[in-house]
Amino acid sequence: MDADGVVSSWDQGMERLTGLAADEAVGRILPLPLLGRTHPPLADFLRRKDEAGARKAFGLRSFLRFLADDQWVARGQMATADGKTLSVTELAWRQGEGGAVLETVFAVPSDLAVEEASGSALNSLKILAEHVPAGVALIQDGLLRMVNQTFCTMFGYTHPSELADKPASLLLVEGDRMRHRQMLETLDKNQKDSLSFRWTGIDKNGRKFWFEGRPAPIDWEGRPATLSVVMDITEFKQREELIEKKSQELRLENLRLKTSIDYRVRLGNIIGRSRKMQEVFESILRAAASDFGIVIYGETGTGKELVAKAVHELSPRNEAPFVAVNCGAIPEELFEAEFFGHRKGSFTGAHADKSGYLDQAKGGTLFLDEVSEISYSSQVKLLRALESGEYTAIGSPKSQQSDFRVVSATNRDLEGMARSGSFRQDLFYRIHVIPIFLPPLRERKEDIPFLVEFFLQDKLGSEKKMASYEMAKLLSYEWPGNVRELRNTLERYIAFGNLDFMPTGGDHSLVPADCLQATEESDLRTVLLRAEKQLIIRSLAKYNWNRSHTAAALGLPRKTLFRKMKKLGIAEGSSKD
After folding, report:
1. Based on the domain organization, do 205 and 172 belong to the same domain?
2. Whose CB has fewer CB within 10 Å in the chain, the N or C terminal residue?
3. φ/ψ (deg, to 5) at 488
4. Is residue 328 assigned to a domain?
5. What is the pTM of this model?
6. Does residue 111 carry a pLDDT above 90?
7. How many degrees, rounded to 5, is the angle at CA 258 between CA 255 and CA 262?
8. CATH at residue 304
9. 396 and 492 part of one domain
10. Is residue 113 part of a domain?
């Protein structure tokens, strides 16, 4: 029946049971009395959320709010069209968010009364569960205490006894076991919202399949337990994935059409006509048409954040936030506060509530720059949040959920780090679904004229034209700082009227030889810190303390330069000593 109590479907079984034809029932509110009783069917009570009325109509011992607020079961008597009286079980399910309710009626074996009289709650539940058109499992202490035959068949077993007291997690793929354990630990029997899950199961023969279900916390024999109903949704999932694949292909084609005018030279703020950059453009379009994790690889200054922004702006998430995080600038002790947020008073200095990066990126894209710099212990915390979709702000009693896409970037070999153990393999496989490799500028020098035109006119607003001999200089240079260094070189070109490249060694070295000479009191760390400090100060002085120019010349991200300056105590006007 629909939200107004009007019958929208009436099958042949109900016709035989009640003697009421479908054309007499559909489109009407069921008349009373019906089926030999004066109260409406269970579905009508569920539609009106009248639990008290259902308990009164069916009796306290006959009514069970079976799985959650939207799934009820009751037992009662029903008069059939031929005058017989049957004991029946009515199962009512709320369908979607529109308020419609579906009810199924089952004849109950006559021995149910005997089981109830014996006081065996488990046997009573078993009989009831066999009348549910789905798999039913009772889990306590992580073990399967009761399953029905449908559940057994779904997982390839012959009889419920084969699964008795077995760990429920063994029926799941390894990646879902932690999520299952977390669900059982956090399930609150007083919660009002109906939970659901969708996991990948493994049957007795090792076949993987998708199933969906709803867990409900209950008290069982005086102790907490979880009652779940599950359904095999493999065919639905396969159709869903096929639809998503076709949808991605359509989105990809649409993106190609939208960008076709500028496609040969430019995609967003990314410039490149070379074959390598055309491959990058294609990777960006394919990545934008999906919602999988991305890792962008490239040397410093190749434009990894620009690629991340292009993916975001071309994706269906483009109206939600793009949150960029420099992972290398976040100390390990502040990781949770920065990523998950904190509540006022949760620690010294927490004077107000602060949302974390995961919350800020809700619905959008979380860009993890320098992802390889996240400490090993912090990687565990990030992985847990990505896997479960839940995290808890420091000082908060409640967990939060946030849907976002993760795009990461690094200038290191992340796969090699995962193999060596310096980066968690499980986190690597979680974020590394679509890799995008950015070539260094020295490998695509044919793009330099287009980049020069773009920076001079579109970005720097200059009408200045570059002479052919000047362009030849740009083309002959190796660009260790890549596109970022090219831009900074062009900024100096506009300001001073000549091309000024970063010295690469010889007599132009920024590091004086004496700073590398250790004294008897010096250790290697002290010498290196002194050399690093002098190099940064000399470079800052060379570029009139312009931090952007200095960072590009040194081949560092600006935030990394700022962090090093703070660590080394460098302020404007600092002495080299």
Report:
1. yes
2. C
3. -65, -35
4. yes
5. 0.52
6. no
7. 115
8. 3.40.50.300
9. no
10. no
Residue 317 CB coordination number (10 Å) = 20
State which of 133-137, 395-399, 402-406, 557-561 shows the largest mean pLDDT: 402-406
Taking only the tens place, the pLDDT of each residue in 470-489 is: 889 999 999 999 999 999 88
Domain boundary among 183, 205, 232: 232
Pairwise CA distance, residues 535 & 70, whole Å? 67
> In this structure, are 228 and 266 located in the same domain?
no
Domain end point (choices 232, 253, 279)? 232
Q: How many domains does the chain have?
A: 4
- What letter would DSSP give residue 459? I
Q: What is the DSSP string of 229-269?
A: EEEE-HHHHHHHHHHHHHHHHHHHHHHHHHHTTTTTTEETT
**For residue 442, what are its two tokens?**
């020295």
Model confidence at 31, pLDDT cuts 50, 70, 90, reads: low
CB 567 within 8 A of CB 560: no
Residues 458 and 542 in one domain: yes
Q: What is the CATH number of the domain that holds 140?
A: 3.30.450.20
131 burial via Cβ count (<10 Å: 0-12, 13-18, 19+): buried
Strands 266-267 and 135-140: unpaired
Do 186 and 258 have their domain in common? no
pLDDT-wise least confident of 26-35, 41-50, 84-93, 520-529: 520-529
Full domain range(s) for residue 199: 125-232
Count the residues in the chain.
577
Q: Which uninterrupted H or E stretch holds 56? A: helix 51-58
Same domain (yes/no): 27, 53? yes
Give the per-residue pLDDT at 522: 53
Q: Which residue has the higher pLDDT, 506 or 12?
A: 12
Provide the pLDDT confidence category of residue 114 given band limits of 50, 70 and 90: very low
Q: Is 187 exposed, middle or buried (0-12, 13-18, 19+ CB in 10 A)?
A: middle
Give the SS3 label for residue 433.
coil
How far is residue 149's CA from residue 130's CA, in Å, rounded to a whole number? 7
CB atoms within 10 A of CB 284: 26
133 vs 530 pLDDT, higher one: 530
How sure is the predictor about 63, in pLDDT bands with cuts at 50, 70 and 90? low
| 73: CB partners within 8 A, 6+ apart | 42, 63, 64, 65, 66, 89, 90, 91, 92, 128, 132
Phi, psi dihedrals of residue 201, rounded to the nearest 5°: -100, 165
Query: Could you tell me if 414 and 495 lie in one domain?
Result: no
| Residue 567, amino acid | K
Nearest CA among 428, 323, 322 for reference residue 374: 428
Residues 399 and 280 in one domain: yes
Per-residue pLDDT of 494-505, as tens digits, reads: 877 778 775 544
- Whether residue 378 lies inside any domain: the answer is yes
115 lies in a domain?
no
